[in-house]
UniProtKB/TrEMBL annotation:
Family: Belongs to the complex I subunit 4L family.
Complex and partners: NDH-1 is composed of 14 different subunits. Subunits NuoA, H, J, K, L, M, N constitute the membrane sector of the complex.
Membrane topology summary: Multi-pass membrane protein
Keyword Cell cycle: no
Protein name per the record: NADH-quinone oxidoreductase subunit K
Membrane-spanning intervals of the chain: 6-24, 31-50, 62-86
Organism: Handelsmanbacteria sp. (strain RIFCSPLOWO2_12_FULL_64_10)
Role according to the record: NDH-1 shuttles electrons from NADH, via FMN and iron-sulfur (Fe-S) centers, to quinones in the respiratory chain. The immediate electron acceptor for the enzyme in this species is believed to be ubiquinone. Couples the redox reaction to proton translocation (for every two electrons transferred, four hydrogen ions are translocated across the cytoplasmic membrane), and thus conserves the redox energy in a proton gradient.
Catalysed conversion reaction: a quinone + NADH + 5 H(+)(in) = a quinol + NAD(+) + 4 H(+)(out)
Chief location: membrane
Pfam families: Oxidored_q2 (PF00420)
Length: 102
């Protein structure tokens, strides 16, 4: 059995669905960030798969590297915000944090 483009796309779609489900159902800010990371990783799998199975060259892998760098920067900034909210209010619930603005 050989692994084809279809297999990679199915794995990417499953990761994307799990990420959307995590973002939609979780209240903890760290869990929401993990869902966003799943969504970005599903995009990376698709980029690498299309780069591997097409004659485009290495551009898909370069774009995936940029997405990984962007995800690392996003995680660092978001975790800093979550830690600051926790330090000031002792909560990490997304719903309660959004009501703090009012």
């Amino acid at each position: 059995m050989t692994i084809t483009l279809h297999h990679y796309l199915v794995v990417g779609a499953l990761l994307f669905c799990f990420g959307i489900l995590t973002v939609a159902t979780r209240r903890n800010a760290v869990s929401v960030l993990m869902g966003v990371e799943l969504i970005l990783n599903s995009a990376n799998i698709n980029l690498i798969a299309f780069s591997r199975y097409s004659d485009v060259g290495i551009s898909g892998q370069v774009l995936a590297a940029f997405v990984i760098i962007l995800a690392a920067a996003e995680a660092a900034v978001a975790l800093a915000i979550v830690l600051n909210i926790y330090r000031n209010f002792q909560i990490v619930d997304v719903d309660q944090a959004s009501t703090l603005r009012q």
